[in-house]
Design goal:
Chain lengths: 538, 62
């Protein structure tokens, strides 16, 4: 490598212009506890989480800001909850588009429509549509605010990792800048450098999985046309612009249109503006005025690395796993990777635990990746039947969906990202008689109204003891960690989501990422200590 | 629920005849589509995952 830096894509916003750092003039390679490679949504979320916990963080990115093109557009509830804890969700919710009605068409006919009515009593909706550009920008703004309050998050633009080696003591990085190379060392390097992860290549690691033989054209068009704020999905659309098509609203009068083009296409020809416009015209009808904001043709893979942790180098987001876009499981799962890793790295760097804790990151996030890959593969197989008989059944489902409600449940144009429930070691006991399944150990804590706010607001960012209808101590210490306790009253939502009907009170203990470690019907400090020891693998 | 492979049809000959009649005048593609719709409708009637899994296995083994 060591080629000069060249922009691989144009920028929507310049956020961290190149500045020469003192590290470049240091006689000896400067040392950093955590270096994050890649300033995309996952790298920024991880940097912010670690920075808010008081860790000095260095983020390296080979560009100087957010790339043009909206790419990810659908941010799910759990992502918004995580961003809320990080102080970044307010502007996302203000800017994002919320919708709850979807319509599924085949040819000219509407097969059915559905209301995606979220359950009441949560701070955040099931998801919002927001361009990745804005998602990253709002995370960056939250980083700027955190730094003003004392966080030490250093994002270096036009700093490209060109070489990475590691030994028992840490990692050594060679970084290319407009002023040439410099070296640093790190305790841990987190690769958030995307699906083509250069760091994965530097370590010679594989990325195995399925390639789907189909091409999709994305056209983000800007128009003020009076379409309702709904998700419209066509199978075999009458306008013949593709085998399937999707129309979805984003903020700022931008509409995301996807066309399924098939496998044998002339990519260059399809990307010509006239040809893109011909497809969009057919879909929207003659005379609808619009501007093409951003276009891309993509194929996709469902694949993951065998292991996400390689000694001092840890992989997050698309660098570790890649899915098809159906279900919005890319960026959303990456943000959950970041959240799962942040508190572990923080404890590790503080000497509160051993590197074994990273093995649990690997186990849990590999499990989540497999779940996402399974969901995403199933949606893709429905959209792109891979055999004649698969197409026969797909069409049979569509034939029935118009008049038989059961078949609508099989129509799969993507199952929306929901957080993984970690049914693996490190959780339990589940000692709450007839406790709700949704809040079993391993699950993320469900939100619910509490007082004038919401339950998740009360949980903070550390280990948490939660008493429902029973007092728990304000703090206890176990395994060198401080656990804060709060007590909340029973409400209909709390009973439904956390307590169940068999008991009158419950005690939960939660991790810093708000996943439930264990639950009981009464408080026992020794039992809480044991559960935390189990969660930390100590 | 265990898969029931003992006789259960009220009118075996009548059902068999109706099944064949349903395909009258259909070409191979139309017949395949009809069969697929029928399988989906019957699968929904059964509902239970274990029974369906056993039915798939029984069909593959035959």
């Amino acid at each position: 490598m060591n080629a000069p830096l060249r922009d691989r894509y144009p920028l929507a916003f310049t956020l961290y212009p190149y500045q020469r750092s003192a590290d470049q003039d240091a006689a000896k390679a400067a040392h950093h506890p955590v270096v994050i490679a890649g300033g995309g949504p996952i790298g920024l979320a991880l940097a912010l989480d670690l920075g808010l916990k008081g860790q000095p963080v260095l983020v390296l990115d080979d560009h100087e800001g957010v790339g043009l093109g909206s790419r990810a557009i659908c941010f799910a509830k759990r992502t918004l909850e995580i961003c809320h804890r990080l102080g970044a969700a307010g502007p996302m919710l203000d800017k994002g588009v919320q919708w709850q009605k979807g319509r599924v068409f085949r040819d000219k006919d509407e097969l059915f429509n559905f209301d995606l009515l979220p359950e009441d009593g949560h701070r955040f909706p099931a998801f919002i549509n927001l361009s990745q550009i804005h998602f990253e920008k709002f995370l960056h703004e939250a980083i700027t605010r955190a730094n003003a309050d004392g966080a030490q998050i250093d994002i270096r633009g036009k700093n490209r990792v060109d070489a990475l080696t590691q030994n028992a003591d840490g990692a050594q990085l060679e970084i290319m800048t407009p002023d040439g190379l410099y070296q640093i060392t790190a305790d841990y390097v987190v690769a958030c450098d995307g699906a083509r992860s250069p760091i994965r290549d530097m370590l010679g690691l594989g990325f195995e999985g399925r390639v789907f033989e189909d091409n999709f054209l994305i056209a983000d068009v800007k128009m003020t046309a009076d379409f309702p704020t709904e998700r419209w999905f066509w199978f075999e659309p009458w306008f013949k612009s593709g085998d399937s098509a999707l129309l979805h609203k984003q903020p700022d009068d931008i509409w995301r249109i996807d066309f399924q083009l098939g496998w044998d296409i002339d990519r260059e020809k399809e990307m010509k503006e006239d040809n893109i416009r011909a497809r969009v015209d057919q879909m929207l009808g003659e005379g609808v005025k619009y501007d093409l904001d951003w276009c891309s043709i993509y194929t996709f893979q469902c694949r993951r690395m065998h292991e996400f942790v390689h000694d001092r180098v840890i992989f997050c987001g698309d660098a570790a796993h890649q899915v098809s876009p159906f279900g919005a499981r890319g960026a959303n799962s990456g943000v959950q990777d970041a959240e799962n890793l942040a508190w572990r790295l923080d404890m590790l760097l503080r000497g509160q635990t051993t590197a074994d804790i990273l093995n649990h990151y690997n186990t849990e996030r590999v499990m989540a990746a497999d779940e996402n890959i399974q969901n995403s593969s199933r949606a893709t197989d429905f959209l792109t039947p891979k055999s004649d008989v698969s197409r026969v059944f797909r069409n049979a489902v569509l034939d029935l969906a118009g008049s038989h409600p059961f078949a609508r449940t099989m129509v799969n144009s993507g199952r929306l990202s929901v957080p993984c429930i970690y049914d693996v070691d490190g959780f339990g006991p589940d000692a709450l008689p007839d406790g709700p399944a949704r809040s079993r150990p391993g699950a993320p804590c469900p939100d619910a109204p509490v007082g004038n706010g919401y339950l998740l607001d009360q949980l903070g960012g550390g280990f948490q003891l939660l008493g429902i209808g029973v007092d728990v101590p304000e703090t206890i210490t176990a395994n060198r960690v401080t656990i804060r306790g709060i007590t909340i009253a029973k409400t209909p939502e709390i009973t439904d989501r956390l307590l169940g009907t068999a008991v009158t009170h419950a005690v939960y203990v939660l991790r810093p990422d708000q996943h439930i470690i264990a639950r009981w019907d009464s408080f026992d400090e020794a039992a809480v200590s044991a559960a935390i020891a189990n969660a930390l693998g100590t | 629920m265990a898969l029931n492979t003992d006789p259960n049809l009220t009118d075996p000959d009548g059902f068999y005849a109706a099944l064949i009649d349903a395909h009258d005048g259909l070409d191979a593609d139309q017949s395949a589509a009809l069969n697929a719709r029928l399988i989906l409708i019957l699968a929904n009637q059964i509902g239970d995952t274990t029974t369906l899994t056993d039915a798939l296995q029984a069909a593959k083994k035959a």
